[in-house]
Amino acid sequence: GWLVLPLDGGAPRVTEQPETDENSFSMELPVGERALILGAGHIARALVPLLRTVGFRPVVLDDRPGFATAENFPQADDTICAAFTPLEDSVTLTPEDYVVIMTNGHEHDFQCEVQVLRRETAYVGVIGSRKKTAYVNQRLREAGIPEEKIAFVHTPIGTAIKAVTPEEIAVSIAGEMICVRATRREAAGEVHHGCPMH
């Protein structure tokens, strides 16, 4: 979007297109990538504010009314209480979306993963052990998901930092998402990562 600042002192407004005339100044607003968090448990509660801080636009979806509330996720762009299937009844996935799957059960995780992998997204991360991952990957194959899509999934999710607490796990997930975003931006020629430490 664009922030339009009227030069006559009028109220600023956000528009889809810049307004180029002598009466206003338009400035492009950086819009962060949407992070769709499927599951509203303890890790999601730690992850959402962290993702907001580093420029993602978190949206939380869970089927449990006591969990998927705006009060639990004040930093989220949206909090949706709805069934995980069919997902498209609640959200439309885009190729720019980052999807984190960490529902309250393996079956929900699997159902979400099948639906998400049938779409194009920027990132898919799924919480779980290596044993669970092997089991789910076999089920994905049986559901007709191609190997390259299965290999696209970051699971177990997060950067290996020996995280234990929900807050530490959230840091590891956010770190992985930041890395994927930076790599995508570099590949698109948008940003060159020049940090001498990395």
Overview of this protein structure:
By secondary structure, the protein is of the alpha/beta class. It has two domains: 1-30, no CATH class; 34-187, 3-Layer(aba) Sandwich (Rossmann fold). It is built from five helices and eight strands. It has helices at 42-53, 106-117, 130-142, 147-152, 166-187, and strands at 2-6, 13-15, 24-28, 34-38, 57-62, 78-81, 98-101, 123-126. The strands form two sheets. Strands 6-5-4-7-8 form a five-stranded parallel beta sheet, sandwiched between helices. The longest helix is centred in the C-terminal third of the chain and has 22 residues, at 166-187. The radius of gyration is 19 Å and the shape is globular.
Structure described in brief:
This protein has 198 residues and is α/β, with parallel strands linked by helices. The chain contains five helices and eight strands; from the N terminus they run E-E-E-E-H-E-E-E-H-E-H-H-H.
Attribute tags:
alpha/beta; Rossmann fold; five-stranded parallel sheet; three-stranded antiparallel sheet
List the helices and strands and how they pair.
Elements lengths: L1 E5 L6 E3 L8 E5 L5 E5 L3 H12 L3 E6 L15 E4 L16 E4 L4 H12 L5 E4 L3 H13 L4 H6 L13 H22 L11
Parallel strand pairs: 4-5, 4-7, 5-6, 7-8
Antiparallel strand pairs: 1-2, 1-3
Helix pairs in contact: 1-5, 2-3
